[in-house]
From TrEMBL:
Mg(2+) binds at S290, D359, D360. This is Amidophosphoribosyltransferase. [4Fe-4S] cluster binds at C243, C396, C447, C450. GO terms for molecular function: 4 iron, 4 sulfur cluster binding; amidophosphoribosyltransferase activity; magnesium ion binding. It comes from Halorientalis pallida. Signal peptide: none annotated. The active site is at C5 (nucleophile). Its cofactor is [4Fe-4S] cluster; Mg(2+). It is an enzyme of class 2 (transferase). It catalyses: 5-phospho-beta-D-ribosylamine + L-glutamate + diphosphate = 5-phospho-alpha-D-ribose 1-diphosphate + L-glutamine + H2O.
């Protein structure tokens, strides 16, 4: 199960947590549109409301009113193609002998089946096939024997993979980030409490201050009276495995991850793209909205380059904001139709011009393929495509619903083949080194599985790689290749 989600948790002094949680989920809506949920605790009992759909549709005023209590957690869940599944909506909640638990999970465990089987042998009954329920049961079991911190530590030693969690044990809200720090999680301060969230944009929405990222392997326990928090470094990681794709595509540009504003990282990647594979053209235009920051960095670097002719930055493609993400479309035909519905060129910015089209990534190739054709139809003389990430050659097992190997255009094709398939005059991707450079991280501290095919986790049938030197993959094809 690939769960690419948003999580949040708040503990306030004496205000109800439901509204701040609801606003935070709105801020994290880009991380998941399939379902939304909130669980609160009023000091005596848990209250829960979990629904399929967008945050705005999932909650009525009356739902928020019944979510009593100053402590709570929330979740938005990413849709996985074809499996709209109400049983996996979160937060997951469970009552057991020594209290109640609520869990919100972003990430994906690699040994959930194994741990689940062991728990089932011990008599635990599961209501879903989700790995979040496995974590909840393991933790509930440990809590019967140990205090909260030790129980979490024991669960962390059993589960492997990617998890940023917000947990509610009775009225105590916790945040946990896996030892590799694969998915983001940060902590912020409000006027009257504390908040844990997948992204700092959620903290901004509540007029709070970002304190810092939760460290890989760290547990943060918010005081139940909203006045502070304690932290425990439960596992000391040797290497991290931060997902670079968070910075490239998934996170909001206005979020700060690892002390770097995502927007600036994307602009730096755009600048690096110019340095690595810049090509003179009349206009540079982004695929909205995913390519915007990359294109602005690229155009800026082009215009600073004394050896280049100078370029016009144009918003040459208009986006219809009412069309959902193309990824949700189950068939290729519908995906192609959706791109056409979603984007339309502004003819005057394109006609008779050489155009460089910039996006963050190519997954199946649908978007680039359609847009190159659209730009030619609108009168472009040449279309060059520049991509702010390396070729995606392998699936993501760690939470991004990225498509299977068979669907990935770069899984078994050279850059020249892909250029031909999308019909561009030239195509270039960004190198892995440029990604590591912009993130100021060693490659050994990043999860690069989708661009190397080698994963920092044990995944059945896949290669494991924890070495610093990763193989170089070709990233560019000009018209003459
Ligand atoms: P494709 O059209 O299949 O090549 O997908 C590439 C487009 O989808 C780009 O515009 C990306 O910004 C966007 N994209 C990349 N990864 C994802 C993802 N996991 N979910 C939804 N959209 C994505």
């Amino acid at each position: 199960m690939h769960e690419k989600c948003g999580v949040v948790g708040v503990s306030l002094e004496d205000r109800d947590a439901a509204r701040p949680l609801y606003y935070s989920l709105y801020a994290l809506q880009h991380r998941g549109q399939e379902s939304a949920g909130i669980v609160t605790h009023d000091g005596f009992q848990q209250h829960s409301h979990v629904e399929m759909g967008l945050v705005g549709d999932a909650f009525e005023q009356s739902d928020l009113e019944q979510l009593n209590g100053s402590q709570g957690i929330g979740h938005v869940r990413y849709p996985t193609a074809g499996s709209v599944n109400a049983c996996c909506a979160q937060p997951f909640s469970v009552s057991f002998k020594s209290g109640s638990l609520g869990l919100s999970h972003n990430g994906n465990l690699v040994n959930a089946d194994e741990v689940g089987d062991q728990l089932a042998d011990l008599g635990h009954a599961f209501t879903s096939d989700g790995d979040t329920e496995v974590i909840a049961h393991d933790l509930a079991r440990n809590l019967l024997e140990e205090d909260l911190v030790r129980a979490v530590k024991r669960t962390m030693s059993r589960i492997h993979g990617s998890y940023s969690l917000t947990i509610m044990h009775d009225d105590t809200v916790l945040g946990v980030r896996d030892p590799e720090g694969n998915r983001p999680l940060c902590i912020g301060e409000l006027e009257d409490g504390y908040v844990l969230a997948s992204e700092s944009a959620a903290i901004d929405t509540l007029d709070g201050e970002l304190i810092r990222d939760v460290r890989p392997g760290e547990l943060v326990v918010l005081h139940a009276d909203g006045t502070g928090y304690d932290t425990y470094q439960l596992v000391q990681p040797e290497n991290t495995a931060h997902c670079f794709f968070e910075h490239v595509y998934f996170a909001r540009p206005d979020s700060v991850i690892d002390e770097q504003l995502v927007y600036e990282v994307r602009r730096d990647l755009g600048r690096a793209l110019w340095d690595e594979s810049g090509i003179d053209s009349d206009v540079v235009m982004p695929v909205p909205d995913s390519g915007r920051a990359f294109a602005s960095g690229y155009a800026e670097a082009a215009n600073e380059d004394a050896d280049a002719d100078g370029v016009e930055f144009a918003e040459g493609l208009m986006k219809n904001r009412y069309v959902g993400r193309t990824f949700i479309m189950p068939t290729q035909d519908e995906r192609e139709r959706a791109v056409r519905l979603k984007l339309n060129p502004i003819k005057s910015t394109v006609e008779g011009k050489t155009v460089t089209l910039i996006d963050d990534s190519i997954v199946r190739g649908t978007t680039s393929n359609q847009l190159v054709e659209l730009l030619y139809d609108a009168g472009a003389e040449e279309v060059h495509v520049r991509i702010g990430a390396p070729p995606i050659v392998a699936p993501c097992y760690m939470g991004i619903d990225m498509a299977s190997r068979e669907e990935l255009i770069a899984a078994d094709q050279s850059v020249a083949d892909i250029r031909d398939e999308i019909g561009a005059d030239s195509l270039a991707y960004l190198s892995i080194d440029a990604i590591a450079g912009a993130l100021s991280k060693s490659k050994a501290d990043l999860c690069l599985g989708c661009v190397t095919g080698e994963y920092p986790y044990d995944i059945d049938g896949e290669a494991k790689d924890r070495e610093v030197d990763r193989p170089a993959i070709g990233t560019a094809a000009s018209a003459d290749d």
